[in-house]
Design a protein that fits this description.
This protein has ten helices and twelve strands. The chain is α/β, with parallel strands linked by helices and 287 residues long.
Length: 287
């Protein structure tokens, strides 16, 4: 099985490309510089050249706040770019796995969102990612949509790295405590994605590490695992205004994942511990 990963220079894309190789599975990554997904001629040329069995479409415009003032860029990548990838994957007979987000929901739920609950994105980013979902469903015959949230890993920027850096620079941290979700370790998500695309269990999936927490609770756990004593003060979303609205509650239920026979991703706290061990090894190697 040959797997092509778009957005291979991103946080998840890099993890997928560097994930331990499995027998009979070849993973090839293309960065934005190598394949601009907004150029369908280039996409068609690259995909036809590589002839993948599966395309994991991880490339995305993820500047959530910038998207509010530049919706054209968000839609160009997340909608038009996804349309291009979907068309070419269909032309070449490849399965398509589209990586989506908890931002397709409005965050007003009082329990975990199901895979087929009604979506209602409130930000430009969320709307553009939902547009990508619809294009995948409309243009592909063999598709997976995998929504995830609060992603962290060794590659690229993320909340865990930001907290660790800020803890070294500030006497105390102030972190939002009224937004709840589920952190997701890129290594665990990559394992699930590679398991999923080897099947024909098409449909919408939610994939996050198990359990839930607030950003404040996540920050406290990060500092504890790192052995840092920087105080963390909870605050409200209103005290930390951002251009794009954030879902207050975006825990993703995993009914389809479990019903399809996949093993749930481990608890987020266990995943955080594994990441911290990996990060120490990477950090000390660099320094």
């Amino acid at each position: 099985m040959r797997v092509l990963v778009t957005g291979a220079s991103g946080q998840l894309g890099k993890e997928l490309v560097r994930y331990p190789q499995r027998n009979g599975v070849e993973v090839i990554g293309l960065s934005h510089q190598e394949m601009d997904i907004t150029d369908i001629t280039l996409v068609r040329s690259k995909v036809r050249e590589l002839q993948p069995d599966v395309v994991i479409h991880a490339a995305a415009y993820t500047a959530v706040d910038l998207a509010e003032s530049d919706p054209e860029s968000a839609y160009r990548v997340n909608a038009l770019g996804t349309r291009n990838v979907a068309i070419v994957a269909e032309e070449t007979g490849a399965k398509l796995c589209y990586i989506s987000t908890d931002y397709v929901f409005d965050g007003d739920a009082d329990g975990p969102y199901g895979e087929y609950d009604n979506t209602n994105p409130t930000s430009v980013y969320g709307k553009s990612k939902r547009a990508g979902e619809l294009l995948v469903q409309g243009l592909s015959t063999r598709w997976f949509i995998v929504r995830t949230s609060w992603v962290f890993g060794c590659y690229g920027g993320n909340f865990v790295k930001t907290i660790l850096k800020m803890a070294e620079q500030l006497e105390r941290l102030k972190v939002v405590a009224d937004q709840t979700g589920s952190p997701t370790y890129t290594k665990d998500l990559s394992r699930f994605l590679l398991d999923l695309v080897a099947t024909e269990a098409y449909g919408v999936y939610h994939a996050t590490n198990s359990g839930q927490c607030s950003w404040y609770e996540f920050a406290e756990a990060i500092l504890k695992e790192a052995g840092l004593r920087t105080p963390v003060v909870p605050c409200t979303t209103d005290e930390f205004p951002r251009p794009a609205p954030r879902p207050k509650y975006s825990v993703l239920g995993q009914t389809m994942l479990i019903a399809s026979g996949f093993e749930p991703l481990r608890p987020w706290r266990d995943a955080l511990q594994a990441f911290m061990q990996e990060w120490r090894e990477v950090y000390y190697e660099k320094n």
